[in-house]
Amino acid sequence: MEGVSEPPERSARRTAKLASLPLSAAGRAATGVGRRLAGRSSEEVAAANRERAAAQLFEVLGNLKGGAMKLGQALSVFEAALPDGIAAPYREALVKLQEEAPPMPISTVYRVLDEQFGTRWRERFHHFDEQPAAAASIGQVHRGTWHDGRDVAVKIQYPGAGPALMADLNQLSRLARVYGMVTPGLDIKPLLAEIRSRVEDELDYRLEATTQRAFATAFADDPDFLVPSVVASAPYVVISEWIDGTPLRKVISDGTKTERDRSGHLLATLTFAGPARAGYLHADPHPGNYRLMDDGRLGVLDFGAVKELPDGLPPFIGEIMTLVLQNDPMAALQGLREHNFLREDIEVDPYELMDYVGSVLDPVRYERFQFTREWMQTEAARLTNPRGPALKFGRQLNLPSEYVMIHRVLLGSIGILCQLGTESSFRAIATEWLPGFTA
User: Fold this and answer.
1) What is the rounded average pLDDT of the residues 78-89?
2) What three-state secondary structure class fits 351?
3) Torsion-angle region of residue 421: left (phi > 0), alpha (psi -120 to 50) or beta?
4) How far apart are alpha carbons 172 and 87 in whole angstroms?
5) 127/31: higher pLDDT
6) Which ranges constitute the DSSP H helices of 339-385?
7) pLDDT higher than 70, residue 145
8) So what's the pLDDT on residue 33?
9) Could you tell me which of 100, 98, 233 has the C-alpha nearest to residue 154?
10) Which helix (H) or strand (E) holds 260?
11) Residue of 126, 125, 130 whose CA lies nearest to 109
12) How many Cβ atoms sit within 10 Å of the Cβ of residue 299?
């Protein structure tokens, strides 16, 4: 924010906190050796270390906000892929990152609003709640009542969020060691690179408001989705209509089967229908961005992270899925080469592709399918097994840049569906909304 930046000493503290994560992990590992020598089992020591790591992870990432919190939110949707013994102590800490973070002082909030809307901004409100209703990675939300009586959500960007975000992302590569100790198959470096590539767009709240308006128009009066209308916007503030509903993380933890099935069905539909109807892919799939409304609609929030797809999703995605399901590996491999997923000089057995895909396409192979944590854990273990054929084939694949965000959104959405345990007809969703896919 022009004229407002993060003090150097605060930036230094942020760097020190991030550096403490891998150092603490190494310290816990060394302490664990001593405790095993003292008679505690390796399982007891490992469990204690993971529990302490989870607590520290939330404290550091949550307090730092910025890129640190954004990484935590992105990682939280993948916890369903971790074995239960590893995931349990991390689950609560990561879920907290989706909607909770320490607030910025109200004096700072008022200063931002003065800069963005002028010192008479209070005249636009009947009421403005000083206590934040929610916190995200680069901003926090306050509830208010607009001058025309509408309840509104006022999303305010943290001062200095841009420099802090970039500094975090440059430092967070250190966390690769921490997550490598937890699960060798989880590589956060490509995820960080993809987050870094779209930071500038997310920092521009005017662009976010434009995207939200496009979604609100495309899904106006829709019986299945609710996108809040934008009331006013500025470079660092977006004011939207307030929506209630049950946060998706509550549906995950406490929802009925009907609620979990409904939420997952709508989330999957949005993933494919958004590009077709609004020209954008909602690219920040984590439970904090969704609400299950009392009338059964899915409320959708936060449009800072999107991928513009004016022609919808690339038809090649649906085409390659169809070829694999039709057991035509030769044509599938040729398609992968033509679209730069596989270099011409790399020789592979066509049936290695079929082994690689395995049951990944089961959700659209069958009339109905239930996503479960167990299914995702099995697939994650198979695809990252250093002794298995799937990892060898996977390492030969290239992911073109235009597909990176699409790939991450699909994986993130699957992670949420597994947390929900959703059962539905995903094949029907793909048939309706995914270009090139024929069941």
Assistant:
1) 54
2) helix
3) left
4) 21
5) 127
6) 350-357, 362-365, 373-384
7) yes
8) 37
9) 233
10) helix 257-278
11) 130
12) 20
CA gap 410, 303 in Å, rounded: 17
pLDDT at 295: 97
The rounded mean pLDDT for the chain is: 80
- Cα 284 from Cα 248, distance rounded (Å): 14
Q: What pLDDT shows up at residue 381?
A: 83
- Domains of the chain with CATH codes: 8-99+162-187 (no CATH), 106-160+201-241 (3.30.200.20), 244-439 (no CATH)
Question: 60, 38 in Cβ contact below 8 A?
Answer: no
Q: Among the listed ranges 68-72, 155-159, 409-413, 416-420, which one has the minimum average pLDDT value? A: 68-72
Question: Which phi-psi region, left, alpha or beta, contains residue 340 (left: φ > 0; alpha: ψ -120 to 50)?
Answer: left
Give dist(CA 349, CA 294) in Å, integer: 51
CA dist., res. 244 & res. 239, Å (int): 15
Cβ-proximal residues to 77 (8 Å cutoff; 6+ apart), any chain:
285, 286, 287, 412, 413, 415, 416, 419
**pLDDT number for residue 345:** 83
Quickly tell me which residue has 């931002």 as its tokens. 112
Give the residue from 376, 366, 384, 372 showing the smallest Cα distance to 420.
Answer: 372
Q: What pTM was estimated for this model as a whole?
A: 0.78
9-23, 235-249, 308-322, 394-408: least confidently modelled range = 9-23
Q: Are 289 and 260 in contact (CB under 8 A)?
A: no
Place of tokens 């369903």: 80
Identify the pLDDT of residue 174: 61
Question: How would you label 307-344 residue by residue, b for 16+ Cβ within 10 Å and e otherwise?
Answer: bebeebbbebbbbbbbbbbeeebeebbebbeebebbee
Q: Which structure tokens are listed for 128?
A: 């403005």
Label the pairing between strands 225-226 and 298-300. Answer: parallel
**What pLDDT, on the 0 to 100 scale, is given for residue 37?**
44
The pLDDT tens digits of the residues spanning 277-316 come to: 999 999 988 888 999 999 999 999 999 889 999 999 999 9
